[in-house]
Amino acid sequence: MDSMTWGIIGLLVGLAVGAALVWLLVARRTHAPSVNQLKAENERFREEVNAHFVQTAQLINELTDSYKKVFDHLSDGAERLVDKEAVRERMPQVGHREVRLRHIGAPRDYRPTGSRSRPEKPKQSSPDRASAGDEADDDSSS
């Protein structure tokens, strides 16, 4: 091959390498704004989360205040309206212990509206019945 062919091959290789470098530099610059956009979006999200939790804390404080107002209202009403003698006779003797609700939620015998019969309670077998039942099973297998 003559020097002219080598010159053309070198020129083509140089153009290809140069084009690849330009393409990489341009691609890198186009990705830079998207990284900045992601950072800005992340910052907006963090601010939104912070605002959400601040508002949640404020709402919980309002809920606590409302609960206290209801409690105070009930306490004042009980103090003014309830006959203390009648309460002492009807309330179990709890002394200075705190009275707590055992179950919170729908009662166990809850049934949907329109249901006429009460749900049956599960039958508990006594030890005497269980042993009598076992003997009956033993007799039938003989």
TrEMBL record:
Residues 92-142 are annotated as: Disordered. It is found in: Cell inner membrane. It is a single-pass membrane protein. The keyword Cell division applies. One of its GO terms (cellular component) is plasma membrane. Keywords: Cell cycle, Cell division, Cell inner membrane, Cell membrane, Cell shape, Membrane, Transmembrane, Transmembrane helix. Residues 106-123 have a biased composition (Basic and acidic residues). Pfam families: ZapG-like. One of its GO terms (biological process) is regulation of cell shape. The chain crosses the membrane at residues 6-26. Belongs to the ZapG family. This is Z-ring associated protein G. It comes from Wenzhouxiangella sediminis.
